[in-house]
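Sequence, structure tokens reproduced for absentees:
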Amino acid sequence: METTSRFTLRQLPLPAKLVVSTFLLAIGLGYTAAMVQLHMQDSKSGKPLPTVEDVILKYTGKRWCTKDDVPRPICRIEQVITGDPTGDLLGKNMAPAFFAKDGGEYEKLLKADPEWKPQLDAQRQGEQTAIALWAQADAKTRENAYKTDRFLPPAEKAPNSITPTYRHPDGAIKVKSILDERCARCHYPGGSKSEPRLDNFDEIVKLLTVPAGTVVPESGGYVSIQKPMDIKVLTQTTHTHLLSFAMLFSLTGLVFAFTSYPTIVRCVVGPIVVIALVADISLWWLARLNEPYGPYFAMCIIGTGGLAGLGLAAQITLSLFNMYAWKGKMALLGLFAVAGGLGGWVAVTVVKPGLDAKQDPVVTEEPQTKPKQEIVPFAPSPLEKVLTGTYREKGPWGTGTGGMIRAFFDKDELDYIPSLKPQREGEHAAVFAWIKAEPAVREKAYHTDRFTLPAELVGKPITPQWLSDPSTVKVKSILNERCAVCHGLGKEKEEIPLENYEQIAKYLAAPDAVKKVDAAPGQPTPEPKTVVLPGPPKPAPIPMVEPKDVATGPSMLEQLVTGPQKKGSLNAKPGGMVGAFFDKEDEYKDAVKSKSPDLPKLTAERENEQAAMLAWIQSAPDARQKAYETDAFPLPASLIGKPLTPAFKADDKTVKVKSLFVARCVFCHGEGGEKADAPLEKYDEILEFLKPTKK
């Protein structure tokens, strides 16, 4: 018992009291923010704070399981490809090989179009899912699928999205191609990761063995289902908590030690937070012990964490009220009341709805207690109107019904031939279905460039470049290509821009609507009654671009193979097939990858192949056909004596043009090729692309 007077907080001058009070309140606010962060990071169940199960899972990697819910054992391949896609590429984690560590393709695609990241990630996740499903299949199915490069996953588990080059037209997946590109690229003899080898099935099968499942007692037990907190992270967290939080909590304890409360109270409450902090951190490490101890130490973390929080609240609150006389106490009560009211408002309007949504995402429909009102479109929107109907060659342009349909067909004669009609009809039908969709669905589909096709359109022909996967279409990309190409800034119809959703939405509003009123529950049905409501302001009609008669221009094939070498996917744009002579051909691609000294020679040969092909395309029709049928085209004087791939030289003055065409074009545009829908195997098929076009 103290017999002499001592210094207390009440004796501090007012400026010092304000400084100490501000410090204590700042510590309390910071700790509250830490609790929010704790919820966001560790509360897996949607509770305000992590549960005991959440804490055990974080620090031990284990979860209590019965025999019925023990996690399925998985093989080595499935384990390493389903790791952290943003982590390091290690022996225990090969997921990054499907993403940023794929050899540069992922970064190159994102650099070209950063907004494409969600779709690209979905495709790469689809690849992971496909390999995991293949690994789970029976041994015979796995082997056959690998050797034929054709795996048909169960329909209910098949990935919705996958890189298009790895999917067959019928939905089967090219698993060998995925493994070769994502795994065998490094895991082969002489590669950067020669062990284990993943370049043939006999080696891969060694990693497909599924280990024995975990044996769980009848009453249940803790089972490892994930890695516990990484030891590096745990070490870093330990030293930051001990150095920073120990300092802060020692200061709050020291402030409390100068209150006027009894000595026994100050001796207990003063150091309690630092003691609880040290105990809490000790339990983090003890939780890593093997069973049965680890999980039980983890359970105690909830207790030490709670003790630290309660102790800090006591230190702050009791110190503040002990520091002031009754006027100061009243001010503090008012401040706490305001803070409590604000906190309650945030809890009711933000926190609780968020927790409810996290715990139960299913929204139940409330029973109808009021008459139901339904707004029914009275007339089609302007955009729906101009796209209603079917394509007619040389049909009308304008703001009338069907007046914009030709934008999907012969508006762009360079990019359209009759054989593409079914694909363009699919584009038109997909956009029309998007227009008819609910507004929220429509807007989301536009911004994500992913619109889920109605069941009746799935499997129907659609231009391949607009398909994200067999059931999803890139609706924004279609609208940009078919509409915004004219209706944009600096373009033919810039006064009616259609370059973003806000601009397009003006033409998606129906001009009128009717309002139907149904009876309230339990009341007799009133006589049918409709009231015409004024709709939104009618937008200006969309002027359509009239086709123009222009002079004849180069054929589509000539434009496709004209231009300099550039990296990029093959497409139907000018210069879009130049890559077929260079980086889309294996020998040249390997030379670039290995930095072969022969690369300059190969480049010169491929450039002259391209020049010879152009000379043949530009020759007279009879001479062109004869040269194709005899596989002998006389080189123009400008190409005689220049380097040319030996396999395509008949002699110093003649090129095997048919052989060249087959090697560079038919490998894709033939039966079983990526572009089999635009075949170029016969001269009659090639003729479609040799017709002059309009500029």
